[in-house]
Amino acid sequence: MKKLISIVFIIFSFTQVWALGEDDNQSIPYPELIKRYQILASQYNTCDFISFGETDSGEPLHLFIMNSSGEFYPEAIHNKTVILVQNGIHPGESCGIDASIEWAEELLQNNSIPDNVVIGIIPVYNIGGMINRGCCSRANQNGPEEHGFRGNARNLDLNRDYIKADSRNALAFYRLFHWLKPELFVDTHTSNGADYPYTMTLLTTRRERLDAHLSQFLVHKLEPYMYANYDSLSPYVNVFGTTPNKGIKAFNDMPRFSSGYASLFNCIGFTTEAHMWKSFDARKKATSKFLKILTDFAHENAKELMENKQISDTEYARDFEFVNLRLDTTKNKEITFLSFAPEYRFSEILGRDQLYYNREKPETIKIKYYDRFEKTGQIHVPKYYVVKAAWREVLDRLKANQIEMTPIENDSTLNGVGMYIESFTNVENPYEGHFLHHQVVVRDSAITMTFHKGDYLVSTQQTGWRYILNVLQPESDDSFFAWNFYDEITQQKEWYSAYVFEPYAKKMLADDLQLQRVYQNKLVNDPKFKKGDYRLYWLYTQSPFYEKEHNRLPILKVY
Ligand SMILES: [Zn+2]
């Protein structure tokens, strides 16, 4: 009993330390959050509360939308610049959830929605995670006393799910996102990691993934505006070495992440990362401050934002494009950074010195910021990808992303370029429910492939071409191949008996001088040829018996 009392006391004291001096250390529970949005929707005709279908939790994904004209159909919405704010993808990081409802209430009460901006708010994206509420899933975070959990109703991290779309949340998000077609997107989070004085840090989508218009606009106008107007804002602290003092590097928000996904559709994305150690109230204020400044920017630059997106939406894939980005570690710039001095002290549990940040020693220092990425994975862009309908999961996702596709009307044999998987590696343990493939090496080869009625032609000359290239080109970091949608093809289905096949193999060699030459060359130069079984297998792969489907994507590139 005494032990129980002392445990209770420790938990109580722990909570008290976090809550010390804070009146506002409570986050809004899910039912109350929805109720507050519903009340606004019933009170004001300049807002609406719309459902986009069921999520994994069984609850619907909601969009709260504000338009000063009170019109909520697509044509009226797309007459203005649209900002989409997404909260609670990680519901333990709940400052954006609370900040957004308070912001919406303020905008409506003061009748201050800018006349040329439509504001959409996803009250909470990971509803299952928000409902899974408790005291303690955020070990290093300073409140609120109760908060949600990172995993969704089926334990997915939704901020890795924008391409594979295992969750119903993602499918509902596709409907919402393509209906709203925002120019600007904000995903609100709370950071982990290093300690420093900033309350807010900012992750901006990779400019290299955007086209020239949007990229120039982002780098020369939007980002400078945000940093100039938001005093004390740092780039997201993604340490280059062990501490920020040794430099920070920009984050590659690949398409599996929210802002990376948005960028595939010409929408500029930001991820706000309020600092975990600041009070919940301070994090809320820091998040709403960001949203307000971004809305000011949208109001002042609405026309240019819309024009830029319209131009980008009608610029289609060129002959050569890139699907991957890699940090260029040779390029960096010096930035001013407010730091708490990193120091080390001995940890008894670790048995070694442990890094900590000395809050008594704030200092303004210059650090290196690595924010340049190389474009890699060059693709010779076809006119069409022809995709087989049997891979339903692929077609479902293409359709859900409003990719225009033309069904093939008759069974057809088409000439084009096939993609063969030469090699790849896997993660050792499942990553977000998948054995994600890495280092995918692809060989293109001119071939003839047979397609059937109901297979599809997917043109690269459409707005969603970035999405198409990123999901269909297997070497892309977030391709459908990487996410296991095409694993069937990597397994050979038919085989041979060595004793039956060997006489045939010998005859093949005798009859084909070219094959004989390659075989002799491999005997000398290919280490795998040291094994007789492999020699026979190789000859099998050269024979007409070897299945053409093995390691070949069921996709044809037509130029
Ligand atoms: Zn997060």
Summarize the structure in words.
- The chain is an alpha/beta fold.
- It has 2 domains: 314 residues, 3-Layer(aba) Sandwich (Aminopeptidase); 179 residues, no CATH class.
- β3, α4 and β4 form a beta-alpha-beta unit.
- Helices cover 32% and strands 27% of the residues.
- The radius of gyration is 27 Å and the shape is globular.
- The N terminus is likely disordered.
- α7 crosses α9 and α7 packs antiparallel against α10.
- The strands form 4 sheets. Strands 1-2-4-3-5-9-6-7 form an 8-stranded mixed β-sheet.
- Bound molecules: zinc ion (ZN).
Provide a brief overview of the structure.
Helices cover 32% and strands 27% of the residues. It is built from 15 helices and 19 strands. Helix 13 packs across helix 15.
